[in-house]
Amino acid sequence: MNFPERLRHLRKSANISQQTLGDAMNVTKVSISGYETGNRKPDTDTLQKLADYFDVSTDYLLGRSETKETRATYHSKATDNNISFEESKLLSQLQKYPTLYTHLIKDPERTVPQLYRLWNFIEEEKQNK
């Protein structure tokens, strides 16, 4: 998704109008409409405000990343769960793959070594090319 699609999707998911979002950003409804159609681009301050408003990264908003969470969100999750930032980020990524995540949770002693063997196989294949 690109910026206009992401913005429209986030706004509709939050169930807010263009007018409400415009008021929160100190821009007009017409500006929000322009952002969503791709006819207008927000300045950097407005882009950051939009990302903060929806609690996503600017990279996600711009379509440069599929990861919604900001570093602050990962840090908050890590603090709440008493795990590191890196561990929190890893868990968030794993949860995007429910089958893999379920196998890792149910039987990590078996699944992790299998993944490690698979990783080694892939690395060997790359070296042999």
Automatic annotation (TrEMBL):
Q: Its Gene Ontology molecular function terms?
A: DNA binding
Keywords recorded for this protein, A-Z: DNA-binding
Q: According to the UniProt entry, where is the signal peptide?
A: none
Keyword Mitochondrion attached: no
Pfam hit, one: HTH_3
Listed InterPro entries: Cro/C1-type_HTH (IPR001387), Lambda_DNA-bd_dom_sf (IPR010982)
Instruction: Name the Gene3D superfamilies for this protein.
Output: lambda repressor-like DNA-binding domains
| Keyword Protease carried by entry | no
Domain HTH cro/C1-type, chain residue ranges per copy: 7-61
Q: What is this protein called?
A: Helix-turn-helix transcriptional regulator
